[in-house]
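RECORD TYPE: inverse folding
INPUT: structure tokens
STRUCTURE:
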């Protein structure tokens, strides 16, 4: 079956099989294309790629396909993609291992395709850094909607984080706290002057909390603000993303849990340099 959306050979793919665990330095350069987002599907179901390619095109997205993880890693390394869709069941390595390899070098949004009812698949995927999941079997429109939501919130994080504004006096695009600096335009976070690599969801969660320090956001608030879906997005997903974010911000202890209430950013503001 075709390996790209156009049905032709992909000039970016490696000629030989790439070792499953190999990640080349400076992997996965990508850019956002607001006109025609470019999505990579890594799934060995060749009968799935063709109809999904057609369906995504109807909604202004280019979908390309790799049937092996090694092929997908090579395409991500050489190309510029806006999001990746990974099946859990893959040859060479499963989707969880593939997600882990991608997360070593890239914060590209990742949607996992999981077996129906397998809650642990969803939990493990989120713990490894996936941004969302869609259980199989699924309606193509749902998958498109999930990808569109992720891409939309990736581009709108600064505006969302600015919210209504609360007159803090500092730049609305650059939030500075004791030991923590958040640049909303560059989507960059510094912890004691050292850069912290965050996934898209982790960054958006931190930007949301930083927009109103001290305010308690319930799990439902966070799900609705960040993900845009109310149904089936169990609150456990929020707990997992918060746990990932806390680990990356250590030794800072700035995200507080209020039992039966939610989460808040508890750190003092500093004047930007």
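DESIGNED SEQUENCE:
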């Amino acid at each position: 079956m075709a390996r790209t959306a156009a049905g032709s050979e992909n000039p970016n793919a490696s000629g030989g099989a790439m070792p499953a665990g190999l990640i080349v330095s400076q992997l996965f350069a990508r850019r956002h294309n607001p006109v025609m987002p470019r999505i990579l599907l890594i799934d060995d179901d060749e009968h799935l790629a063709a109809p999904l390619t057609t369906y995504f095109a109807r909604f202004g997205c280019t979908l390309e396909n790799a049937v092996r993880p090694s092929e997908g890693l090579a395409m991500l390394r050489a190309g510029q993609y806006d999001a990746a869709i990974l099946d859990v069941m893959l040859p060479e390595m499963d989707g969880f291992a593939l997600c882990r390899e991608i997360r070593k070098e890239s914060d590209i949004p990742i949607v996992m395709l999981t077996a129906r009812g397998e809650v642990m698949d969803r939990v493990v995927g989120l713990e490894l850094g996936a941004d969302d999941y869609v259980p199989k079997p699924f309606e193509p429109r749902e998958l498109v909607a999930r990808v569109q939501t992720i891409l939309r919130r990736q581009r709108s994080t600064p505006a969302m984080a600015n919210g209504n504004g609360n007159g803090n006096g500092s730049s609305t695009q650059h939030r500075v706290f004791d030991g923590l600096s958040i640049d909303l335009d560059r989507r960059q976070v510094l912890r004691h002057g050292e850069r912290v690599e965050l996934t898209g969801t982790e960054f958006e969660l931190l930007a949301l909390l930083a927009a109103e320090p001290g305010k308690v956001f319930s799990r439902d608030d966070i799900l609705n603000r960040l993900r845009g879906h109310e149904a089936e997005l169990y609150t456990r997903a929020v707990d997992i993303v918060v746990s990932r974010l806390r680990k990356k911000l250590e030794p800072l202890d700035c995200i507080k849990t209020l039992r039966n209430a939610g989460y808040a950013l508890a750190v003092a503001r500093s004047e930007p340099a």
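NOTES: Helices lie at 46-58, 69-78, 95-103, 119-128, 140-162, 200-211, 219-226, 236-249.
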